[in-house]
Amino acid sequence: MTAKQRIIIVGAGISGLAAAFYIKRHKPDVHVTVLEAADRIGGKVKTIYKDGFTIECGPEGYMARKKGLTDLIKAIGLGDQLVHSKSGGYSIYVNHRLRQMPKGAVMGVPTKLLPMVTTGLVSPWGKLRAAMDLLIPHVYQDRDLSVRTFFEKRLGKELVANMIEPLLSGIYNGDLSDMSLEETLPQFASIEKKHRSLILGMKTLRPPKQKEAVTKKTGAFVSLSGGLSALTEKLADYADEIRRNTSVSQINSGRVTLDDGTVLNADAILLAASPKQFGPLLNFPEAWALSNDKRSSTATVAFAFKKEDVEALDITGYVVSRKEQLHITACSFMDRKWPHLAPDGYAFVRTYVGTPEDQALVHQSDAAIAQAALADLRTISRIGTPLFSIVTRQIDNMPQYTVNHKQRVHAFENALSTIDGVFACGAMLHGVGLPDCTENARQTAEQAVHYLNTLEHAHS
Ligand SMILES: Cc1cc2nc3c(=O)[nH]c(=O)nc-3n(C[C@H](O)[C@H](O)[C@H](O)COP(=O)(O)OP(=O)(O)OC[C@H]3O[C@@H](n4cnc5c(N)ncnc54)[C@H](O)[C@@H]3O)c2cc1C
């Protein structure tokens, strides 16, 4: 009888744990060990349960249209926990006021004329400049460029500063000046390629079905009623063994070396650790090129309030223009978006601190971060005294997809493919959103299973 094949997964974030699930689904008889440096699993996915609140410290949900993750959730038996976000407007805090995003704007890019003409977000000159998009020749020429260069050339600096930048930096926590267009917003590159004008091209994008969806009461995101940690906990059940507090220092073909010098052998190894670990663990130039790329730090502050202590604005959140020079970059009224997160009569407000240009506050104490965030929130709307706050930091742990990221990933994957039985997935490679991570984990797990099957046949 031949010995059971073994695979080691490094990193118990959503990527590593989803990979464990997919490997077991395709090859139930392989022994899967997950090594995790921290004392808990989940990585950036972290739900804390306190006084009846379900506090999401990392991701809060994902785009409902990305069906792969929903299929995964159903496959592991959590389908009955799926909840849709409530729809509600998002505003932008700019020029010292909360202003509504004009109707029809997609990622800050206008698609309708009338709401743009009447919005106070951009000056008359800014609007005129944006309208020049209708005449301007192609900016994207099949070569990657920064998101800022692309949008400023098409729509002008003011619209970028007041509408696009606050939204995108809220989502990607990045600096538009070096953010890769091809990797972060490929859809805009293709629209421009096909229609030249973004404004005209975006109009054609919305299928009739999507128009209907916008008028419905549910938002575009889904999550789990028990908190997203339920997902990582459940996925972890598929691994044969999970070792916490086990940090890996080196990966070679068939061999993993731990920080304490212990060497573990395996038929295949799948790296799913944090972005900065690719270089040190794999130690080849293309891996270093990825992990030496820009990363940023951020902190989220979750505040619990009595409902009456939070001004009842008619929105589910807002983003803050960098021109305002506040510490916070975005704020979500989480209980309005996700009623399951707070008990009746209470409010849960979450705000983000830390931009690529201003990382200092993220390194200060929890109390200092919470105090600065609260002061900023109070500049914008009426907010009382919180019942408690929870600060969560990601230090140097947010990957930034800078210009030519795609080419670096391609070079990395080519180099990795020359090392027998070593695979990699994770937010560093093909998208930071949870659905992108799980899709990348699925594909990588399938490659690993194919490799193991080939090994098995060669030995039989
Ligand atoms: C505040 C915040 C909000 C977000 N909101 C959303 C959202 O709403 N929707 C969405 O889709 N996405 C969101 N994201 C993005 C998403 O959460 C992440 O991209 C995703 O969780 C990354 O998963 P991962 O498994 O690739 O990496 P990680 O979660 O970083 O996991 C990597 C794991 O590897 C471990 N590790 C590192 N080094 C070693 C080592 N040497 N040895 C062993 N283990 C190691 C780490 O401890 C960690 O557990 C958010 C992220 C943050 C931080």
TrEMBL record:
InterPro entries: Amino_oxidase, FAD/NAD-bd_sf, Protoporphyrinogen_oxidase, Zeta_carotene_desat/Oxidored. Belongs to the protoporphyrinogen/coproporphyrinogen oxidase family. Coproporphyrinogen III oxidase subfamily. Pathway: Porphyrin-containing compound metabolism; protoheme biosynthesis. Pfam families: Amino_oxidase (PF01593). It is found in: Cytoplasm. Residues 14-447 form the Amine oxidase domain. It comes from Sporolactobacillus terrae. Keywords: Cytoplasm, FAD, Flavoprotein, Heme biosynthesis, Membrane, Oxidoreductase, Transmembrane, Transmembrane helix. The chain crosses the membrane at residues 7-23. NCBIfam families: proto_IX_ox. Its EC number is 1.3.3.15. Its cofactor is FAD. Involved in coproporphyrin-dependent heme b biosynthesis. Catalyzes the oxidation of coproporphyrinogen III to coproporphyrin III. It catalyses: coproporphyrinogen III + 3 O2 = coproporphyrin III + 3 H2O2. It is an enzyme of class 1 (oxidoreductase). This is Coproporphyrinogen III oxidase. Gene3D superfamilies: FAD/NAD(P)-binding domain, protoporphyrinogen ix oxidase, domain 3, Protoporphyrinogen oxidase, mitochondrial, domain 2.
